[in-house]
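Moderator note: this is an archived Q&A kept for reference. The question asked for a predicted structure of one protein chain; the sequence and the answer are reproduced below.
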Amino acid sequence: MLLLEKRGFLVTVATNGRAAVEAYQQQDFDLILMDMQMPEMDGMEAFAAIRALERPQAGHTPVVALTAHAIAHDRERCLAAGMDGYVAKPLTAALLFAEIERLAPAAAIEETRAAS
């Protein structure tokens, strides 16, 4: 969170997967960083719920899986489920920001302006 805020991003934190889905229903996001190991509803379940909610509006919010499981199978599982990106923990700032810029370039531009 601090890493993102330091770069000028507005961050909303969800303490679990259910809270992530509720936050998605209440506001628009440029990008979602989805922790795959959350309580109550894991990241895959929360992701599926978010995708089901966006279908009626024909919208698409990029979702990046964040996981401590840094094996190829987990990356492939997340991407096969329809996630837009994947970053393994412990993450590096360079990889995280590269994924953000790749998936939400407008957000990265706004972030750069806000940090100036």
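Archived answer notes: Confidence is low (pLDDT under 50) at residues 111-116.
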